[in-house]
Amino acid sequence: MKRSQAQIIREYGPFPGVDAVHGVTYDGRQVWIAVGQKLLALDPDSGATPRAIDVAANAGTAFDGKHLYQIADGRIQKIDPASGQVLSTIPAPGAGEDSGLAWAEGSLWVGAYRDRKIHQVDPETGRVLRTIESDRYVTGVTWVDGELWHGTWENGASELRQVDARTGDVLQSVEMPAGIGVSGLESDGAGRFFCGGGDSGKVRAVQRPGAAPAA
Predict the structure, then answer these.
(1) d(CA 54, CA 109)
(2) What is the pTM of this model?
(3) Handedness of CA 47, 37, 90, 75 (dihedral sign)
(4) Tell me, what's the pLDDT at 215?
(5) With CB atoms 3.0 to 4.6 Å apart as the test, which of 83, 104, 172, 177 could cross-link to 2 if both were Cys?
(6) Sign of the torsion formed by the C-alpha atoms of 177, 182, 185 and 188
(7) How many CA atoms lie within 13 A of 135 on its CB side?
(8) Where are the domains of the chain?
(9) ω before 81 within 30° of 0 (cis)?
């Protein structure tokens, strides 16, 4: 297993009125962050937050190229980002312990925090298609270039981990600095991971190992 230390490129926040950052996703232009009772749009270049959607948002967030998905209170909401309307909901698999959320291969991928699992879920029905076991608490989840990554936050330590999507084996670990936790996790599809910072109220951009440095 490869091990490295996280290279933090930039910090955003804390943001006015935001006590904690939970889920994080990226729509190709802006980062969406779940902050409890709303989703905030964050411009990753300027750091501005020009828009909010009023929706329960206390865990993972994902984007499928057209819609946002947001975990809240044991369910996954499908949201029209233009109107902010909740279009449908499905049950979340973790019985209220759901954490991260990602979209890949036509499925939702849901982190189950204390269960130390990642579930692949049918986005129409909520049916669990398969489950990947972890040996650490699972926070954020993301896919990039065919690689499955998840965040951990346990006993005061956080990592970003690339895991084998078939076996759950850890392929590489990127250790965050002491005192910095990872709640949500998302890739920009290139050289950056966006990491929710939990009750710090911050979002951090971290260099993805092996990728070209972010501009």
Answers:
(1) 24
(2) 0.96
(3) positive
(4) 59
(5) 172
(6) negative
(7) 7
(8) 2-207
(9) no
